[in-house]
Amino acid sequence: MPGACRLFWTLTCLFLFAIALWADDSSSSSTATAPATPPKAKTEVVEDNIHGHKIADPYRWLENSQASDTQQYVHDELAYTRSILDPLPGRAQTHQRLTQLLSIGTIGTPQLGGSFYFYTRREGTQNQPVLFVREGINGKDRTLLDVNQLAADGTVALDWWFPSEDGKYVAYGTSAGGSEESTLKVKPQAGNNCLTPSSVPASPASPGKKITPPFFTADIRKRGMCLPGKRSITSKFSITSWEPTPRRIH
After folding, report:
1. DSSP code of 165?
2. Domain total of the chain
3. Does 173 reside within a domain?
4. In terms of domains, do 115 and 183 share one?
5. Domain that holds residue 156
6. In whole angstroms, what is the distance from residue 41 CA to residue 73 CA?
7. Same domain, 146 and 199
C-alpha cells in the first residue's frame, strides 16, 4: 500500500509539472506574437475657427476610413484588443448565450395612421428590422420596407419612420455604414415606388411626427457655408413643398 501511494503521488506531480511547462510555453508564444502595448496614434493637428474660437483636432485623419494610415491603425488596435480579450475564460459560452438571446428577435411599438398599423419587426439573425403595415387590428401583415435588401452586408439602417395621419404615406430615413446621415424618402403605403425629394439627401434628424400632404422639408445645407464633410445650421435655408412633385417655394 505505501508503494502504491508513493507511485500515485509521483505520477500526480509529474502530470502537474507537465501542465505547468505547457502553460508556460503557451504563454510565452502568445506573448511573443501579441502587441505589448496599445498602438499609438499619430497626431496631425487640424484647426477649425468656429465663431471666433480655434478648435484643434489632432485625430481628424482617422475620420478617413479609406486611408492606409487609418486602416493600419485599426488593424493594430484590433490585434491588441484580441490579444487581451481572446484568452479570457468563458468567452465561448458567453458568445453562445448572447447568440441565443439576440436570435429571439424584436417587435417595435405600433403607430397608427388612419386605419393602418405600422410597426417594425426583426426576426432571428436579421441585421435590421423590417417595417410592416397591417390594415385593422386583425388584418394581414404586409412588408412595407425591408432595408436588409438594400445592402448585402446589412449596413443600411432604418433610422426613423413616421406614417401620415391618414396612413397613405410613410416618411422614413435610411443611412449607410453607420453614418447616421439619413436620406429622407416618402413611400406610399399601398405601392412600391418611393417619392424622394431631391433637396434632402442627408438629413441628420427626423422631420417630425406630423406628416400630411403637402409635405414640407427644409434644407439647411448650403454649398460653401459649412466645412467640408461637416454640417452647419445657418439662417439661410430653402423649403420644398411637394405632393408628390417637388416645388420650391422659398
Report:
1. T
2. 2
3. yes
4. yes
5. 103-210
6. 7
7. yes
Q: Is the bond leading into 244 cis (omega within 30 degrees of zero)?
A: yes
DSSP 8-state symbol, 42: P
Same domain, 118 and 154: yes
8 Å CB contact between 173 and 185: yes
Distance CA 148, CA 103 (A): 16
pLDDT digits (tens), the chain, 250 positions: 444 455 455 445 444 444 444 444 444 444 446 678 899 999 999 999 999 999 999 999 999 989 999 999 999 999 999 999 999 999 999 999 998 998 888 999 999 999 999 999 999 888 899 999 999 999 999 999 999 999 888 889 999 999 988 898 888 889 888 877 788 888 888 765 665 544 355 555 454 444 444 455 544 444 444 444 444 433 333 334 444 444 443 3
Q: Which three cell numbers stand for residue 24?
A: 508556460
Write down the residue that cell numbers 387590428 correspond to: 137
Query: Does 96 reside within a domain?
Result: no
Q: Are residues 121 and 170 in the same domain?
A: yes
Q: Is 81 contained in some domain?
A: yes
Indicate the length of the chain as a whole number: 250
